[in-house]
Amino acid sequence: MTGRGATCIFLLLVALAPLLLPGYVTFQLTQAIGIALALVGLNVLMGWGGQPSLGQGAFFALGAYAVAVLAQFGVPWWLGMPAAIVFGASVALGLGKPILRLEQTYLALATFALALAVPQLLRFNAWHRWVGGAAGLQLGRPVQPSWMPAWVNQDIWMYWIALLVAVGTLVAVNTLLRGRLGLELRAVRDHPVAASACGIDVSRTKTIAFVISAACGGLGGALYAMNVEFVTPDSFTLFLSLTMLVGLTIGGPGTLAGPLVGALFIQFVPIVAGRISTAAPWPIFGVAVLLVIFIEPRGLVGLWHRLMRKATR
User: Fold this and answer.
1) Is 231 helix (H, G, I), strand (E, B) or coil?
2) Which of 64, 193, 203, 205 has the fewest Cβ atoms within 10 Å of its own Cβ atom?
3) What whole-number distance in Å separates Cα of residue 119 and Cα of residue 199?
4) Phi and psi (nearest 5°) for 142?
5) Are 299 and 39 contacting, i.e. CB atoms less than 8 angstroms apart?
6) What DSSP assignment string belongs to 156-206?
7) Half-sphere exposure of 164 (CA within 13 A, CB side)
8) Contact 260, 36 (CB under 8 A)
9) Whether the Cβ atoms of residue 55 and residue 112 lie closer than 8 Å to each other
10) Could you read off the pLDDT of 232-272 as tens digits, one per residue?
11) pTM for the complete prediction?
């Protein structure tokens, strides 16, 4: 069987999984897909471009609020999602030039400030009437078409939408990274001075990576908002950005599957930890993170590749 055929079979099994799973697990998987899209963008910026970021949760919030605000004016979800992408990318384009002049630690601090500022700005009274302030906004889920079978409920339909969007995004991003942009990002990551000497516009390359990262973050936030049907500033605190950074590190930065594995890790490991100990779930989560880092610093995908190499030998 060819690799393409195996991929198609795998995607078919993933698409049919909700038929065998409880509704709440399907809901959680849809949440994980939204987070995975944000991690795909973070992977472009950090894993491929080598630029640290602690602000991915801010763009996640902007995308969620973009689709929620438009829903208040009757804009359908299939128009709200592209608007969330454009909004996140536009904000990143405006901030990219001044922020990306900074290097490493200072760049991380600038994105850290962004993650702190966005939840507070969403509470600001000047636009309370549009974003709802601390109370947040409610919106509806996509409704399954009437021609769908009766067993296709809203959870399954929302999951299929998220899965289709995720596959399309992965294909698009992977295509970009396999081309010239991927080469330029790796050059900037490995040695920016040498990259500049070879004729690469380092500032432009960093800005493109930042914009792609924000666009994917906004798209993931839009899916999150549609799935939970409610957004509030408290859902997008600094802890979310830090958790996304952990997820990418655990999954495997610079790999195609790393964001997907990392999203599943940060979505389900805290749930399992909470079942083990309701009093201290996060220490258990922290121990799991430390174990992965100590066993394989390149993440779970790196561990998988290492095991496969040993098996083939």
Assistant:
1) strand
2) 193
3) 39
4) -60, 135
5) no
6) HHHHHHHHHHHHHHHHHHHHHHHSHHHHHHHHHHH-HHHHHHTT--HHHHH
7) 8
8) yes
9) yes
10) 999 999 899 999 999 999 998 988 889 999 999 999 988 88
11) 0.93
